[in-house]
Each structure stands twice: as structure tokens, then as C-alpha cells.
């Protein structure tokens, strides 16, 4: 799988001055650090794992008993089903760290009697110790608070400040390889998930003075548009948004198209061709997010460049999400029949029976010539027949009509953009494609 990687490294803790062998597992979204531990896999203690001590809380009660096969247990090979008499390949937490009970790895202890069925058996396993989310994480090769580079080492810091401690590698090449792999995943994940974030001033319903309302922190991340009272700091904060919407089911609308560059506005102010900023129309730098029939959020920004950035960012976020999901289906009805209406990036519009899935009709995006709706549940879609060139009307009823209309708009806009590589760099997508 692209972006995945695994390997062995050393983990150095500056506070305790200890170094451990660790196994690194890198996926697209998470860097996992695993440590070696010995667990009981069978016998009377099979339900009690040694690693549970780490998560037992502030106070624990420990029962200590004599284990007669300790020498063999400490030399247990990784993955072994139990104490072994073959010590030619010694591997244990103590041996792995260079500490040998008898001076070297070739010394063996007397073989213990064959364990009974009730006696515990042990295995060494790699157990997850740290799972660090890579979204908006950062890496650093410098010693904390200095400008000195570490040799063959680096740290990874999560958004909420959680750190991997220092990852050490045998060679500079190996360290660079892991550093680049982790950095690439961080950058790719951020590009895919965070298109744009920033503050805007939301005007209350019925208010025309957008600058007097509450400030909100907005984010375009992955498939959603978020509205926060304060910026999300930790990963858990993303679940605490004031409001969340599916990107492809809402519509972005600029109230007025002013000049894209603030320098031109400043020049016109200087020449006296424009009123002062205080005298400008309060809605001149506002945009709305249409979320339902007659329902919307209106936000004001300080600069014309901010408005342009939000517009382009929203278009890009919708484009990426449509490219990701490829199709979206909604249940609907027509003349008392339950149907499934599908908007597909490659195929266009498809309507099928709700139970048998039999396709009733299909049209390309280019065949949609118009639409009208009653503002509640019903919509009439006008398609041009490819053969007869006649207009054919399809009337459907949806429980969430506005979401469907916005989804159609999002898919058509993304389709148009995908046909022109330079289109995403243009000022904006074309206007509404439907008379809804």
C-alpha cells in the first residue's frame, strides 16, 4: 500500500536516558511505535498479560511468585510458544539491550521439566506503545531549544503536542529515508484533508451588519465544512464543531464580486474614486454557505483577497471530495414508486428501482438542460434525448431536495473542472447550472 513502511529503530528517552528497540509502522495516517514485551499466552495466567501494568492506573496490586524456568524464560525467542531448550538464537528484552545474565549469549541454563498443561506459556510480541496521528504533525532533527542537528535522529510531534521521543537509526541514509517517508505522509494527509482554515465573522439571521456578529473559525477538511467557536487544537476537538456539513451538499455564494487584489482597492481609495472602508457596503466582502431551502450561514472577511481565497478553497475542496467519492445515491419517489437516484462522476445521472435495482433511465451531465422545483420536495429535471434531440422531463420527489440539488451542482462543477487542467487555477467555476 502506498505510503506504508515498517522497520526497526531505537527509541531514546532524554528524561530517563534509556534506549529501547522499537518497531516502526508507518501508514498514511498514523505512525505506530511498538515495543517488545513478554505475554502469557496459555496456562493458568493466560488471562493476565504483563503489558496491562502500563494501563492499570495509579495504584496496582501485584502478586509475585517464583518462576522456576526464569533463565529459559528470559532467553525466549520471539514468537516461541513457550520455554525452549534451543538457545542458539538468543533473543530477549535483556539480551536485546546488551545485558547478558551469564556474560554471553551462548551460555545455557538447565532445561526445565516439561511444563504441565496448567503451567503458563509465554511469547515475546511487539505491542503498540504509541500511535501518533500524522494530520498536521511535524518532524524535527534539532535538539530542543537549540540550532544543533541530531545525528541520524529526529522526533515526530503530533498536533496536540504528543511526541515519539527521539528515533535513532543506524545510518544517515536510513534516518533520511524514514524522515522523508513520514514527512511525505504528513504533507499528503494535510493536502488531502485541510484545504483551508481561518476566521470569519458570522452575521446573525436577519442582520445586515456582518461586522457586528460573532467570529467563527471555519475549516475545509476532507469531506466536511466545519464551523467552530474556537480553533481545533487536538484531534478530539474536530468532533466538537458547532456545525458540520457535507461539502458536496452545500453551496458557496459570494455576495458581491469586488476586485481580487486589495492593492487596486487601496489605489482607488487613494485617488478618491472609492469611499473609505468605513463607508463601504457591509456586504461587500461577504459569502454565504447555502445549506437548505432558505437556510444559510453568512460570513464577512476583512480583505478582498480573503474572499477570493475562501472561494477558490471551497471550489478545490468540493472538487477533491467529488473525485474521492465518485458517486452519491439518494432515495426518492415518482408516482408512488420508491426509486434510487444516483449522481456518478463518470456516468452522469441514473435512476433505478429501489428494490430490484433495475435501471429505468440514464443521462450524461451534458444532457441536463434545466430544472425547476417547488422549494419543498419535488424537482423537475429536463434532459435532452441524445437520439431524438427532444427534451424529456423527469419528476422526482426527495425528502432532502436541497442537498440533492447542491450535490448535482457540485458534481457538474467538478466534472467541468476535470476537463481543463488549468481550470482549477481560474477565478471561479461557472455560475449555477440549474434554475433551482
TrEMBL record:
GO molecular function (one): structural molecule activity
Chain intervals for the UniProt region annotation (Disordered): 101-120
SUPFAM superfamilies reported in the protein's UniProt record: PH domain-like (SSF50729)
Stretches assigned to the Syntrophin C-terminal PH domain: 325-419
Protein's cellular compartments: Cytoplasm
Cytoplasm among keywords: yes
One Pfam family it belongs to: Syntrophin_4th
UniProt KW keywords: Cytoplasm
Transmembrane region(s): none
GO cellular component: cytoplasm; dystrophin-associated glycoprotein complex
This protein's name: Syntrophin, gamma 2
Lineage, opening ranks: Eukaryota, Metazoa, Chordata, Craniata, Vertebrata
